[in-house]
Design a protein that fits this description.
- This protein is mainly α.
- It folds into two domains: 45 residues; 220 residues, no CATH class.
- It is 69% helix and 0% strand.
- Helix 4 runs antiparallel to helix 6.
- It is rod-shaped and about 135 Å long.
- 22% of the residues are buried.
């Protein structure tokens, strides 16, 4: 554009009608004419379009980033759910194939020994010869659980807090306790199997006192109870954590649908322990009511501080 293209403006003498000096009025007229020119209007339009395009592009990038984040967390949550379920299923299998037969056999053997001891006390049975004791020498398997994998997923890649983190911490501890309890019980039963038949076996296997006023060796009975206790604990903690993870996955899926619609929506994992409950393998939730209550009190206390 050349200044020759700008329409000429009349010269003013003195002051303009709006009270400005002539030179100011002339300058305003020139600027107005320039702004109304096609060249300047095209520049302004291009600038406006660039700004709008930048805003739209920013929003598209933010939307895609949000979708990728939701997709990644949902995928990680599904994986964590499967890992927690694998821990639970392994503990359920241990209980079904080893722990329940072990504890049932031990309770029956112990009941028989207690009846023998009662008959001895009441005089119904004479003599000091103890009955033949066929100890249960089956070995409990040495199991490993993918606890570290689950910890990394839950602590680093999933936005869950409070109860879920407490479940993860307790689950990790319980898995270690169960592994140690199995190993300890196997060690003890090997020691008992090497003892000569007689009172020494009853003292080690049943915790029978060595004499009327003697101390009882309860190491093996405690080992059996520990195996059963920690198996139930691992089942409950892993099942509860898996259920929490599945609920979190469903919430993430609902967020996806709300924000992006149902097209290409990822699936959320689910859990179902109906069969385990019907087979009597799932521990009673009431046994863990105090643990949950203590956790609730701790969370409330943390929120108040």
């Amino acid at each position: 554009m050349r200044l020759d293209d700008v329409p000429s403006t009349p010269l003013h003498s003195g002051a303009c009608s709006n009270g400005l000096p002539d030179w100011a009025c002339s300058t305003i007229d020139v600027l107005a004419a320039m702004l109304n020119s096609p060249f300047v209007l095209s520049l302004l339009g291009a600038a406006a379009g660039a700004c709008v395009g930048a805003v739209v592009a920013t929003r598209l990038v933010a939307r895609r980033q949000r979708r990728d984040e939701l997709s990644a967390e949902l995928r990680n949550t599904n994986v964590a759910t499967m890992v927690a379920l694998s821990i639970c299923h392994k503990a359920l299998s241990l209980k079904r194939t080893h722990v329940l037969p072990l504890t049932s056999r031990y309770q029956a053997d112990l009941a028989g020994w207690n009846e023998f001891a009662r008959q001895r006390r009441t005089g119904e049975r004479q003599g000091n010869l103890p009955p033949a004791i066929a100890i249960d020498t089956r070995m409990l398997p040495s199991l490993t659980f993918p606890v570290v994998t689950l910890q990394r997923l839950l602590f680093d890649r999933i936005s869950m807090f409070g109860r879920s983190l407490a479940l993860m911490t307790t689950l990790s501890e319980t898995a270690g306790w169960l592994t140690n309890a199995n190993a300890k019980r196997n060690e003890l039963v090997e020691q008992i199997a090497r003892l000569p038949a007689g009172a020494a076996v009853a003292q080690a296997y049943f915790g029978a006192p060595s004499s009327a006023a003697g101390a009882a060796n309860l190491e093996y009975p405690h080992a059996v109870r520990s195996v059963a206790l920690h198996t139930d604990e691992l089942i409950w903690f892993s099942a509860t954590l898996a259920a929490d993870l599945a609920a979190h996955a469903q919430a993430l899926r609902d967020n996806w649908i709300e924000e992006f619609g149902r097209r290409h929506v990822p699936e959320a994992s689910s859990v179902d322990f109906t069969a385990a409950r019907q087979n009597g393998l799932m521990p009673d939730d009431a046994k863990f009511a105090e643990w949950l209550a203590s956790l609730d009190r701790q969370i409330v206390g943390d929120l108040r501080t």
